[in-house]
Amino acid sequence: MCGIIGVTSSKRVAPMLTQGVRRLEYRGYDSVGLATLADGGITVRKGVGKVDEVDKKLDFASAPGNTGIAHCRWGTHGGITQANAHPHLSPYGRVAVVHNGIIENYLEIKQELEGLGHAFVSDTDTEVVAHLIERELDTADSLRQAVQRASARLVGSYALGVVSHEYPDTLIATRNESPLVVGFGEDGHLIASDVSAILSYTDTVIYMDNHEVAELSPTRCQLFDEHGGLIEKATTKIDWDVEAAEKNGYDHFMLKEIFEQPDKLAATIHPRLRDHEVVFEAESGITPEVLRGIDRVVFLACGTSWHAAMAGEFFIEELAKTPAEVEYASEFRYRNTPIGPGTLVVAISQSGETADTNAALEEAVRRGTRTLAVCNVRGSSMTRTAHHTLYTHAGPEIGVASTKAFSTQLAALYLLTIGMAQAKNVLNQQQIDTMIHGLRQIPLQVEAVLDSNDHIHEIAKHFTSRHNAIYLGRGAHFPIALEGALKLKEISYIHAEGYPAAEMKHGPIALIDKQMPVVVIAPTDKLTYKKTLGNIEEVKARDGIVIAIATEGDTIIPELADHTIFVPETLYSLGPLVSVIPLQLLSYHVAELRGCDVDKPRNLSKVVTVE
Question: Residue 606 catalytic?
Answer without folding.
Answer: yes
